[in-house]
TrEMBL record:
GO terms for molecular function: ATP binding; phosphorelay sensor kinase activity. Residues 614-766 form the CheW-like domain. Residues 15-119 form the HPt domain. Involved in the transmission of sensory signals from the chemoreceptors to the flagellar motors. CheA is autophosphorylated; it can transfer its phosphate group to either CheB or CheY. This is Chemotaxis protein CheA. It catalyses: ATP + protein L-histidine = ADP + protein N-phospho-L-histidine. It is found in: Cytoplasm. It is an enzyme of class 2 (transferase). SUPFAM superfamilies: ATPase domain of HSP90 chaperone/DNA topoisomerase II/histidine kinase, CheW-like, CheY-binding domain of CheA, Histidine-containing phosphotransfer domain, HPT domain, Homodimeric domain of signal transducing histidine kinase. CDD domains: HATPase_CheA-like (cd16916), HPT (cd00088).
Length: 780
């Protein structure tokens, strides 16, 4: 039977451009429905008596069956129909939800997710689910054929059932795009609950209307009003009225035969050219008793509009350009400010006064040779000039004040716009975190371990782009915690630990950053094994290893190919992945730290900026170039005299409040375009050795950086202050340069490169391993 229903993923009910529009909505809604379905299933697994979760799973399967059939994906429609039928039996207590059935249903969601992902990539995947349906049949008696009648629900005593024919009046929000698509999807959904008799406007007219604000469906079903409302409440719906149809007999006489909805054709039903409207006095809305929170959620959903991410990206780019332009205006006002200071004007007035006194000294009786008439004429001209200068200065001062106020207003508008645009890109991390419930469930069963996942801070918001990129790194950390970190139940009992291991996935918002932690209560990292593997691979000598702290030794887990696992599994153990995790986090302008304690567990802490678009940075100058450093990576800035720079183990070091901090010089760790060669000629940090004989008051600016619990002092030529940097992607010639993470354009049009803090630490470490003979040393 499934073979007969299988079809290629071509959307058999639609054609051309119409298909593309419908497919995108289908993909978005099915994605959300699959996420909700998995969450409902996992809830049922923990609490099999949870009626809300059971009804939600049934509703989602029912919806996916109808929309998939409407799109022509009949194999998917048949699979969801079979699952729906099994859940109908569970709802009516004819069958129980066993572990085997739950595993098969989750396997079916994997099939559906893969199918959706392939469709989204533009592929043409097969929707043949016959193998899954056969497995389902082997677990129990499955329905033999697809029924065209709606599945019977089991209403609670408090549920109001409608029965007979009635009208569903749907009103869309003003200016809704693709309203005709929403109308057809609502029709398709209702067709699976009962019989759609007709609609006004007709389905043929709906697609030709430019502005569809509402439409009415004549509908017959025995379902309750709450369920109908829920099915019809798609994105963009403002309100739904369910009106009794008291003239069913008249409608029955006038309407043409209804088109039967069959599994072979989930096309929208044929509709009447018109509908007989009941008398006005009968238009009493049937309103089921909904809890206030449900009504609030419905209204919130009606006010939500889907926006493609690339549209937000373009809006953010325009906001960035506005910020750059605003910065240019601010720079111009700063440059013009000296021109309108009173000091400049007063100097001109004093100069004119001196000239007047000199000329007056030439009057008769004052030793002058010219006549009084000539002198008075010159005097009058100078007075006129003085008056004109005074008027122009006052006008200019007044205009400049207006310009400064306008620029200040523009700054406030730009900042508010930036915040609002960022808000549109922010989404809760909850949906991302909830995906890992399934991962933990399956991996724990595979490794014969008992694991519970605790999620906290799921309402914390993060940039949508970052959410999309975080899935793989978090997945790898989660898999490692289960495979390597947590012990088996028997081992935990022997150690006096709870039999069930715990993984905590937590997010929190602090300042301009979001912190994500993954912690477990397992065995912790084996420091001795890490030391042994470092020596075996020749990464350090025994003597060098003795100088490393425990946190520095733990950092070796981020090296490519580094692993302490004795046995390679399909989950982990090959040493592939942890370096990718760190690189991916670095690409997101974030950092990751690890803390571990023997027999108490391991915690991975990820710090991420709220958004990748705009980052607050410290601007520095080195030679002729301007660079930026993320301000969150800057601990402090100090001016260090030359005589306070020491050399410890061939490395220059400074002491700040009792802490010794290693120094790095940009002319030695960065070699872009022979920068190290040119840097020997100019710049205060070019050769520290040449400055050691200078007076103690001379020194160098040091930016103290912090990352993953480490500190490093970076010597720079000049500090230019802080600024909001609008991050731009690097061109091909810069993309592969180690040490750069992005670029930006300043207000005056010059380009500044953003330094990668993690790369600075690694470059400095390389310099420590192989000290250059040209490196100056200072021994004091």
């Amino acid at each position: 039977m499934a073979d007969n229903l299988s079809s290629s993923a071509d959307g058999g009910s639609f054609h051309g451009d119409e298909l593309d529009e419908y497919r995108q909505v289908y993909l978005d809604e099915t994605d959300e429905e699959l996420e909700s379905l998995v969450q409902a299933l996992l809830t049922l697994e923990e609490d099999p008596q949870n009626g809300n979760a059971l009804n939600e799973a049934f509703r989602l399967l029912h919806t996916m069956k109808g929309t998939s059939g409407l799109m022509g994906y009949l194999g998917v429609s048949e699979l969801t129909h079979q699952l729906e039928s099994r859940f109908e039996k569970i709802r009516s207590h004819e069958e129980t939800l066993t572990r085997e059935l739950m595993n098969l249903v989750l396997k079916a969601t994997d099939f559906l997710r893969t199918f959706i992902e392939e469709l989204r990539k533009g592929g043409n995947p097969s929707d043949d689910a016959s193998a899954l349906i056969e497995e389902l049949n082997r677990l129990g008696q499955a329905p033999a054929a697809v029924s065209t009648a709606p599945a019977k629900s089991v209403p609670s005593p408090s549920t109001r059932t409608l029965g007979g024919a009635f009208r569903v009046r749907v009103k869309f929000i003003a200016g809704l795009q693709l309203a005709d698509l929403k109308a057809r999807l609502i029709l398709a959904r209702l067709a699976n609950l009962g019989e759609v008799i007709g609609s006004e406007p007709s389905i043929e007219d709906v697609t030709s209307l430019d502005d569809l604000t509402q439409f009415t469906i004549l509908f017959s079903s025995d379902r309750d009003a709450a369920e109908i409302r829920k099915i019809a409440s798609v994105d963009g719906v403002e309100s739904i009225e369910i009106l009794p149809g008291l003239m069913e007999m008249a409608v029955e006489e006038r309407r043409p035969p209804a088109v039967e909805i069959s599994q072979d054709s989930f096309s929208p039903p044929a509709v009447m050219e018109s509908i007989v409207t009941p008398a006005p006095q009968t238009d009493a809305e049937i309103t089921p008793d909904l809890p206030p929170e449900a009504e609030t959620a419905r209204r919130a959903a009606a006010e939500t509009v889907r926006v493609e991410v690339h549209r937000l990206d373009r809006l953010m780019n325009l906001t960035g350009e506005l910020l750059v332009t605003n910065a240019h205006f601010a720079q111009l006002t700063q440059e013009m400010l000296p021109l309108f200071k009173r000091g400049s004007f007063n100097s001109k007035v004093k100069d004119l006064s001196d000239r007047l006194r000199q000329r007056l000294s030439g009057l008769p009786g004052q030793g002058g040779s010219r006549g009084p008439t000539d002198l008075l004429a010159e005097f009058a001209e100078d007075l006129d000039l003085l008056e004109r200068l005074t008027v122009r200065w006052e006008e200019g001062r007044s205009r400049f004040t207006q310009i400064a106020e306008t620029v200040d207003q523009l700054s406030r508008v730009s900042n508010n716009l930036q915040k609002r645009v960022l808000d549109t890109r922010m989404v809760p991390v909850g949906p991302l975190f909830n995906r890992f419930k399934r991962v933990v469930r399956d991996l724990a069963a595979e490794r014969d371990k008992q694991v519970q996942l605790v999620i906290r801070g799921e309402r914390t918001e993060l940039d949508k782009r970052m959410i999309d990129e975080l899935g793989d790194p978090l997945l790898h950390l989660m898999r490692n915690s289960i495979d390597h970190g947590l012990e088996t139940s028997s081992e935990r009992q022997r150690l006096g630990k709870p039999e069930v291991g715990t993984i905590v996935l937590e997010a929190a918002h602090r300042g301009n950053n979001v912190f994500i932690q993954i912690s477990d209560d397992g065995a912790g990292l084996n420091i001795a094994k890490i030391r042994q593997r470092i020596l075996e691979r020749g990464l350090l000598s025994s003597a060098e290893l003795e100088t490393y702290s425990e946190s520095q030794i733990v950092d070796f887990i981020w090296r490519p190919g580094f692993s302490t696992a004795k046995q390679i599994t399909d989950i982990s153990g090959r040493g592939v992945g942890m370096d990718i995790v760190k690189n991916r986090i670095s690409e997101l302008s974030g950092s990751i730290e690890v803390r571990t304690e023997a027999q108490r567990g391991t915690t991975f802490s990820i710090r991420l900026p709220l958004t990748l678009a705009i980052i607050r940075s410290l601007m520095i100058r080195f030679h002729e170039g301007i660079y930026s450093i993320p301000l969150d990576d800057v601990r402090e800035i100090v001016f260090m005299p030359w005589d306070r720079i020491h050399t410890v183990h061939h490395r220059q070091t400074i002491e700040v409040r009792g802490q010794f901090i290693p120094l790095a010089r940009m002319d030695t760790i960065f070699t872009w375009n022979d920068l190290s060669a040119t840097s020997q000629a100019t710049g205060p940090t070019a050769t520290l050795a040449a400055e050691t004989n200078s007076a103690p008051t001379h020194g160098v600016n040091v930016v103290i950086l912090q990352s993953s619990g480490r500190t490093l002092g970076l010597c720079v030529d000049e500090l230019l202050g802080g600024a909001n940097i609008v991050i731009k992607s690097l061109t091909e010639n810069f993309k592969n340069i180690f040490g750069l993470s992005g670029a930006s354009v300043k207000g005056d049009g010059t380009v500044c490169l953003m330094l990668d803090t993690a790369a600075i630490f690694e470059l400095a470490a390389r310099q420590t391993k192989a000290p250059s003979s040209a490196s100056p040393e200072r021994v004091s």
